[in-house]
Specification:
Chain A: Belongs to the binding-protein-dependent transport system permease family. The complex is a heterodimer. Chain A is mainly alpha-helical. Chain A has helices at residues 2-36, 40-43, 58-65, 71-102, 108-118, 127-136, 144-147, 155-165, 169-177, 182-193, 195-211, 214-219, 228-238, 243-278. In chain A, helix 4 (71-102) crosses helix 8. The two termini of chain A are 42 Å apart. Classes of the chains: A mainly alpha, B mainly alpha. Chains A and B meet through helix 1, helix 4, helix 5, helix 6 and helix 8 of A and helix 1, helix 2, helix 4, helix 5 and helix 6 of B.
């Protein structure tokens, strides 16, 4: 009985604590949304109002219609770049991961050791030389600068290899007896089985490319070539202290990701765990 | 440095299906197959990861304005940064270095403790834990630009909501983004709000791996809440803890977007951090040699710190938790 009542007290205390914490966490988002729906003249008001006196979407129209800060174009850039990058990563990394996991070849262990060692190297040391290389390839201020260099990363290989190691050998054996070649086995049998791991890698690759800030900031310079995060930093300058409009842009930038999260929550949480521990 | 690397290294020589080992048919095509699989990645890996490392060292040994050909200067940039207190490189680098270290020292403990507390809370059997998990995790999906804009508005000195409530409850107006120490506090606060989700989820997974019997046994033995936290929970999540501390330190060291967008390095240059400096020196001043040297020193420091953390925190693990 003593245990039971202690448990109930813990339950209640924790719940109250969580509610307070959640209010603190959600308040900024709610306040931003509220501001974005006010006319600019009412954005700053004392005393402050959580519920807009006049409800308006004008800030959204102004942000979406501004020619000097093409938000829709930036959104398109980000979408194209992150999608292509993710697509290439999935192909390149799953092929390599499969070879490192399941094939025997000269130099495999040394190569894989080198790959894993580079995971420890801080990316900061590559930015300056990488810029020069990308420039020599003629990719500065093009989407390629943000799509291709990341394909040299090793994190996806690491995760996928772990997954491939767990697939039973019998499946491959059976296919080989049926006369399937290595490529057939890979595309017809291994890849379909690896769907959960591929989804995780895809999600994290997409998100980190989509949210990348430092590299796109350096490697693009024309307004049309910016990605959404870098575009927001430009917008900050052009709509300086026009907070209702800035907050409309903030909401627009946050919305797609949060909607995606609503539907794919399970994958995000599983992925975060996998990349963190098992990964 | 990374617990994951340690873990799988044992499986290097694990079982293998002998595809392309030459035994099956022994043809040249068979032998080439594995290399065809790894080739695409290897090409990118060499061009965009290995070459830049060597090239970065090369640049750091040269004076280069990006327009005229690089001029070899040997270790001059390193000498300036380490030994010449009157050089601009020395002044700028160490200012940014210590600013960055300050942020790491302020932020990392908070970025470990807050997610740990939240993880313990959402691991408790209570109402709506899945909803709460989602709430705390969601901000980490936003870009740093979005997060910075949100906090720029919330912490605005004159019109911000935080100062409004501070004033309302008798507090004074705080210049969050333009005075010390408030600027650091602001940067830590927005970073906490933004990033705790990842660590919380990892701690949570660690907590769920602790066997229920351990908790039960401790309760029956009369161990209090605190005692259980220090004797069961903390030792039980040693692995996730190591991962979170190392990763969070690395990420905090790489701080860029928040001060770039909110404080712009100010007041003065007091929140100018290493990544901002490297960008400034490399891509605004076009002193590529100095920037490359600074980046290498920063990278090397980071590697060193991670290795020390790993060594210190892993020592206990070998002895075991009990």
């Amino acid at each position: 009985m003593a245990l039971k009542s202690e448990e109930r007290r813990t339950q209640r205390f924790t719940f109250v604590f969580l509610v307070i914490a959640a209010v603190v966490w959600l308040a900024p988002m709610v306040w931003v949304l509220s501001t974005s729906l006010k006319p600019e003249s009412q954005a700053i008001s004392w005393p402050l109002r959580w519920i807009p006196e006049t409800l308006t979407f004008e800030n959204y129209f102004i942000i979406l219609g501004s020619a000097s800060t093409p938000v829709i174009r930036w959104f398109g850039n980000s979408l194209l770049i992150a999608s292509l990058h993710t697509f290439f990563i999935l192909i390149v990394d799953s092929m390599a991961a499969y070879a490192y996991a399941r094939m025997r070849f000269k130099g495999r262990d040394v190569l894989f050791w080198i790959l894993m060692t580079t995971m420890m190297i801080p990316p900061v040391i590559t930015y300056i030389p990488l810029y020069s290389i990308v420039d020599k390839l003629g990719w500065v201020d093009t989407p390629w600068a943000m799509i291709i260099p990341g394909l040299g990363g090793v994190f996806g290989i690491f995760l996928l290899r772990q997954f491939f190691l767990g697939i039973p050998y019998e499946l491959e054996e059976a296919a080989r007896i049926d006369g399937a070649g290595a490529f057939q086995i890979f595309f017809r049998i291994i890849l379909p089985l690896a769907k959960p791991a591929l989804v995780t890698v895809a999600l994290f690759t997409f998100m980190s490319n989509w949210n990348d800030f430092f590299w796109p900031l350096i490697v693009t310079n024309s307004v049309e070539m910016r990605t959404l995060p870098v575009g927001l930093s430009i917008l900050q300058g052009s709509f300086n202290i026009q907070y209702a409009k800035l907050m409309a842009a903030t909401v627009l930038s946050a919305l797609p990701v949060l909607v995606l999260f609503l539907f794919a929550q399970r994958f995000f949480v599983k992925g975060a765990t996998m990349t963190g521990i098992k990964g | 440095m990374d617990p994951r690397i340690e873990k799988h290294s044992t499986s290097f020589t694990g079982t293998n299906v002998p595809i392309g080992d030459g035994k099956t048919k022994g043809s040249a095509i068979q032998n080439a197959t594995p290399y065809l699989f790894i080739a695409p990645h290897l090409v990118f890996f060499i061009i965009f990861l290995i070459v830049p490392i060597g090239y970065g060292i090369y640049i750091s040994l040269h004076e280069w304005d990006y327009l005229t050909p690089p001029e070899f200067v040997g270790l001059q940039h390193y000498r300036n940064i380490f030994l010449n207190p009157t050089s601009i490189d020395y002044v700028e680098f160490w200012n940014a270095f210590w600013n960055t270290v300050q942020f790491v020292v302020f932020a990392v403990p908070v970025l470990i403790v807050v997610p740990l507390v939240l993880a313990v809370a959402v691991d408790t059997k209570t109402w709506g834990t899945h909803f709460f998990r989602a709430v705390f995790y969601a901000p980490s999906l936003l870009s740093v630009a979005t997060v910075s804009l949100i906090w720029l508005w919330i912490l605005d000195t004159n019109a911000g909501i935080v100062n409004f409530y501070l004033n309302k409850f008798g507090g004074e107006t705080v210049p969050w983004l333009s005075k010390m120490p408030w600027a650091w506090i602001a940067l830590v606060v927005m970073t906490v709000w933004w990033t705790i989700g990842r660590n919380m989820i990892i701690f949570l997974a660690g907590l769920q791996d602790i066997p229920e019997e351990l908790h039960e046994a401790a309760k029956i033995d009369g161990a209090g809440r605190l005692s259980r936290f220090f004797h069961i929970i903390l030792p039980g999540i040693r692995g996730p803890m190591l991962f979170c501390v190392v990763m969070t330190t690395i990420e905090s060291f790489n701080l860029f977007g928040q001060p770039y967008m909110t404080t712009q390095g100010g007041p003065g240059e007091e929140t100018e951090v290493l990544m901002m400096l490297i960008r400034q020196v490399g891509f605004a001043d076009f002193r590529m040699g100095s920037a490359a040297a600074m980046a290498l020193i920063m990278g090397f420091s980071l590697l060193l710190i991670s290795m020390v953390q790993f060594a210190v925190m892993n020592r206990g693990q070998i002895r075991g938790p009990r």
